[in-house]
């Protein structure tokens, strides 16, 4: 019978106090002293990586060689074993050409001169740009507001010269004296014509 209000008791017997839980590594576990004083460097393994077969290149070569049946293709695959190229091979060659003192990343932005900040130089530069932009906008607005002149407005401002009318008379009437003279004397006539 179970005890009321209590969990079931564990029936397994635990090992003694001298038992260590976990896995003990005899070769590499030297404790804290070895961890602090010795850097455990892993030596790289020089294992040759076997690349998979490059069937695209082999199929192309088999067609060029004149293979038509599956048996001929199989024989071609057996004698012409072409493997894929290692992509990391080019990367390692490129990395080896990098100079030793080269640093990567973007260069830091030059520091802002504090003297210009104290004197509000950036505000003045911004105000100058705003004023220049306002001047340009006013000039463009004046150009848009001006009405384009047509021929009528041009003739109003620049009237053409008036042609002097010359009355033409036949030559036989040039030397004819007037038949009627209303002036009392020739002096009055000259005075009236000169006025």
TrEMBL record:
Pfam families: CFAP77
Top-rank taxon: Eukaryota
Name under which the protein is recorded: CFA77 protein
Lineage of the organism: Eukaryota, Metazoa, Chordata, Craniata, Vertebrata
Gene: Cfap77
């Amino acid at each position: 019978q179970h005890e009321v209000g209590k969990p079931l008791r564990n029936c397994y017997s635990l090992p003694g106090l001298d038992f260590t839980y976990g896995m003990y590594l005899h070769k590499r576990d030297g404790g804290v002293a070895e961890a602090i004083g010795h850097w455990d460097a892993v030596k790289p393994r020089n294992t040759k990586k076997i690349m998979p077969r490059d069937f695209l290149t082999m199929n192309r070569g088999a067609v060029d060689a004149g293979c038509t049946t599956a048996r001929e293709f199989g024989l071609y695959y057996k004698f012409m074993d072409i493997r894929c190229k290692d992509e990391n091979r080019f990367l390692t060659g490129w990395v080896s050409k990098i100079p030793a003192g080269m640093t990567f990343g973007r260069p830091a932005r030059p520091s802002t001169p504090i003297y210009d900040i104290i004197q509000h130089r950036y505000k003045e530069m911004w105000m100058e740009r705003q004023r220049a932009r306002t001047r340009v906008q006013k000039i463009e607005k004046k150009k848009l507001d001006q009405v384009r002149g047509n021929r009528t407005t041009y003739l109003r401002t620049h009237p053409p010269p008036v042609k002097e009318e010359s009355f033409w008379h036949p030559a036989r009437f040039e030397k004819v004296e007037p038949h009627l003279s209303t002036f009392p004397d020739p002096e009055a006539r000259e005075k009236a014509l000169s006025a």
